[in-house]
Amino acid sequence: MNYKIGTIVKGKVTGIQPYGAFVSLDKETQGLVHISECKHGFVKNLNDVLQVGEEIEVMVIDVDEYTKKISLSMRSLEENVTFQYHHKKRKNRQDKAVKPGFQSIAKMLPKWIEEAKKDEKARNN
User: Fold this and answer.
1) Is 90 exceeded by the pLDDT of residue 102?
2) Of 1, 44, 75, 77, which residue is most buried, by most CB within 10 angstroms?
3) CATH 2.20.28.120 at 8-77, yes or no
4) Around Cβ 36, how many Cβ atoms within 10 Å?
């Protein structure tokens, strides 16, 4: 069968590897669902998401005409995915007393050179 990008098809999981799952689309055609295309978010182990013999619905996301390899995605069929991350408030890492610029760098350069010389001397002893 001739599969086109964007086509939604049903297939049967025939094998699971650490990098993805092989899916039989028909008697002659097989595709791969890469681990990153199984679902949104992080997937540590594909065996937690899929089982060999399971019937799944996938979308064709790439067809290599030369090698005849078909890339499939389950993630593309998911809708309304929202992530709830707890973002830590970033601390302001910039010293407000120091105004950034080349003059600040020129002022600090002799001190940095001295520190580097001391560090080098300490490493050599």
Assistant:
1) no
2) 75
3) no
4) 13
Regarding pTM above 0.90, the answer is no
Cα angle for residues 91, 93, 94 (degrees, 5° grid): 135
Which residue in 36, 37, 40, 45 sits closest to 16, CA to CA?
45
**Domain residue limits, the chain:** 8-77
Compute and round to an integer the Cα radius of gyration of the chain.
Answer: 27
pLDDT of residue 70: 92
Which tokens hold the place of 63? 């067809």
SS (H, E, C) 33-95: EEHHHCCCCCCCCHHHCCCCCCEEEEEEEEECCCCCCEEEECHHHCCCCCCCCCCCCCCCCCC
Q: Give pLDDT tens digits for 45-95.
A: 989 989 999 999 999 999 988 888 899 999 888 876 665 666 666 666 665
Residue 20: which of 35, 42, 41 has the closest Cα?
Answer: 35
